[in-house]
Design goal:
transmembrane helix; Heat Shock Protein 90; alpha+beta; membrane; single chain; 458 residues; EC 2.7.13.3; five-stranded mixed sheet; Helix Hairpins
């Protein structure tokens, strides 16, 4: 503001002083020329001849003094007459304007780079000041000296404004720095917090608005850190609880599975009553379902604890896919397309889990037509395995959350064979390999899951 004020004051001063210099030169010239005419014009005849006009301009040229103007005179529609061959320099339109004017007419113009001033003064009848005599005198002179005065004024304004600008910039920089430094610290702290450093705080000094903003930021950061710590603690407790419960349930479930297996044999041999055999079959199914759920929970707990490890082996991908389907008696229910001789370095047990989850879901929810397609991309050295079905597809509202834990495709199915952890476990196994697992709805109908894994050692 100080710099702008200094420059504005200098510009305004220059403009006013320049106008005053030019106006003074203009008024002085008109006054001098009018005074000379008032003393010389009464001696002219009523209809002056060219020689009379030449004598008049000669005397006017001599009376110009330091101004060194050049004068010319014209009577009515006659020619422009000067004392010498050099007539007054007149800008366009001034002669026409002066011929009809009753007062002096002034016009500024340039010749090259030099400013000039031209004056047209009509001579009135001595006895009738309001009636024009028909005689008009023109004068023009250079404003070079006035231009030098204006240039000197510009230099003086520049010389005066420069120290003000310099002296204003220094405190302005200190003031701006004192304002911007807290803002920069606040921005840096916000970036640190966005990167996860919730323990970030900024140093607050003073009692101004920026200090209040800093204290508000520190309070917000403390609240966020406390909430995040509490959430992490609750999440850790929940995971530990799930892992502990799953571990504790394994022993009784193993015993229950063994007992229901023996009773299943008795039911199959006809040694039990039909009602008892039916009830026993229900208990056996629920026991097996609970066992699978516990195993899934324990597997998720291993991923959460970072205890899941890969046991890689170079395997034939086609053989691995066929073994997975044959183990679950799905070989006749899925159309397999795997190029022969395709090999990859991976953990066969974990890929088996992923493939079993994908094909099992497709068979349960997508109809009997399940397609398993495997391709190797040599360009980026990756294995692409896709499982597609011909069912209704995944609801759009569920699709973004299909790999979340305990997510089921149909919320109306309050109870199903799945635990809601299968796809979450499949996605974790894909990430453990350094790959990805994605889900989309095919334009032709049905859902399609795509597993992408590195072909070589991760």
């Amino acid at each position: 503001m100080a710099v702008v004020s200094a420059l504005a004051a200098a510009a305004l001063t220059f403009r006013q002083a320049r106008g005053a210099i030019l106006d003074r030169a203009q008024d002085s010239a008109v006054r001098d020329l009018r005074g000379q005419l008032d003393s010389l014009a009464p001696g002219l005849p009523a209809r002056p001849a060219r020689s009379d006009l030449r004598a008049l301009t000669l005397r006017l040229d001599r009376a110009g003094g330091s101004r060194a103007w050049r004068t010319s005179a014209v009577y009515r529609d006659g020619p422009l007459v000067s004392a010498t061959s050099r007539t007054a320099h007149l800008p366009g339109g001034l002669r026409e304007t002066g011929a009809s004017a009753r007062t002096a007419v002034v016009q500024r113009f340039h010749r090259g780079d030099t400013p000039w001033l031209a004056v047209a003064v009509p001579v009135m009848v001595a006895d009738e000041p309001s009636r024009r005599s028909g005689l008009v005198v023109y004068a023009s002179f250079s404003l070079a000296s006035e231009q030098q005065d204006v240039s000197s004024l510009v230099d003086a304004a520049r010389t005066g404004a420069l120290p003000v600008v310099v002296l204003s910039v220094v405190p302005a920089l200190f003031a701006a720095r004192s304002v911007l430094r807290p803002v920069r610290r606040l921005r840096s702290a916000a970036e640190d917090m966005s990167a996860g450093a919730l323990d970030t705080r900024i140093e607050v000094t003073g009692d101004d608005e920026l200090a209040d903003l800093g204290r508000t930021f520190n309070g917000m950061a403390a609240t966020l850190q406390a909430d995040a710590d509490r959430l992490r603690d609750m999440e850790a407790k929940a995971r530990r609880f799930a892992a502990d419960v799953s571990h504790e349930l394994r022993t009784p479930l193993a015993a229950m599975t063994a007992v229901t297996g023996v009773l299943d044999e008795d039911a199959a041999s006809g040694q039990l009553e039909p009602e008892t055999a039916e009830a026993l079959g229900l208990v056996a199914d629920e026991t097996r379902r609970l066992t699978r759920m516990v195993e899934d929970l324990m597997e998720i707990s291993r991923f959460d604890a970072g205890a899941a490890v890969l046991h890689r082996d170079e395997v034939d991908v086609g053989e691995l896919v066929r073994k997975t389907l044959a183990l679950r008696h799905w070989q006749d229910r899925a159309d397999v397309d795997v190029p022969p001789g395709l090999r990859a370095n991976l953990d066969p047990r974990r890929v088996d889990v992923v493939l079993a989850n994908l094909v099992g879901n497709a068979l349960r929810h997508g109809g009997p037509a399940v397609r398993v397609r495997v391709r190797g991309r040599g360009g980026d050295g990756r294995l692409v395995l896709s499982v597609a079905d011909s069912g209704p597809g995944i609801p759009e509202a569920v699709l973004p959350h299909v790999f979340d834990r305990f997510t089921k495709g149909d919320a109306a199915r309050a109870r199903s064979e799945g635990s809601g952890l299968g796809l979450a476990i499949a996605a974790e196994n894909a990430r453990l390999h350094g790959g990805t697992l994605t889900a989309t709805n095919s334009p032709d109908g049905g859902a399609e899951f795509t597993l992408t894994l590195p072909l070589g050692t991760a």
